[in-house]
Amino acid sequence: MRTVITSTALIVCVACSPKSSDETAVASEDTFPDTVPESLWAESVTELTTVASVTGDLADGQVVDLSFGSESDMACWPANEAINFEGNHLYYAVAMPEDSELSATVSPDPGVDVSLYLYQLASDSYYTPDDVPYSVTCEAAYDQANDSNPGESESAKVTSSTNPYNVFIGVAGAAGELSGGFRLTLSLE
User: Fold this and answer.
1) pLDDT tens across 85-109, in order?
2) Which of 171, 174, 156, 56 shows the shortest CA–CA distance to 113?
């Protein structure tokens, strides 16, 4: 004698019920958040989505030793341009997919002088400036002509081909810039 056992599962979809227009608006805003809730980066780093726009203030950052930026294995900027990165810093990061171009623009409030730097790491690396041993590439945006351009936006971009990367993004005040607001905007193509 053969026994056959059958079972039936009833799946209830609570989220499938019709929503009011207010509920729909909230759901669509939450679909593409600017920040990632659980990050593997250090606590000082805010992980963003690839299409994000966030505001910050240099007053929430700190002065950082960026001597790594002018070393030959990083080559973010020449040593004589370090003055553009001697103020407070705020850290951001994003996971960049393969075959893409990531653009970052920092737009400061009037009178605030900021610079921007991005470096790519392997997708399983989470190095911050205090311990970064290398990068795949490093790009920086700063006022090269006068070492001062308060209120002017700075933009930089990095590309990927066959590999995904983690991208570290630093927003830095120029020498003496310890406070001042800005908007950081990311886009991916």
Assistant:
1) 999 999 999 999 999 999 999 999 9
2) 174
- In terms of residue numbers, what domain contains 76? 36-188
The predicted pLDDT at position 70 comes to 84
CA 150-152-153 angle, to 5 degrees, is: 135
Least confident of 29-43, 65-79, 112-126: 29-43
CATH number for 87:
2.60.120.380
Residue 94 lies in a domain: yes
Count: domains in the chain: 1
Cα dist from 53 to 20, 92, 132, 176, 182, whole Å: 27, 12, 26, 25, 10
Residue 134, judged by CB atoms within 10 A of its CB (0-12, 13-18, 19+), counts as middle
Instruction: State residue 84 phi and psi, 5-degree precision.
Output: -75, -5
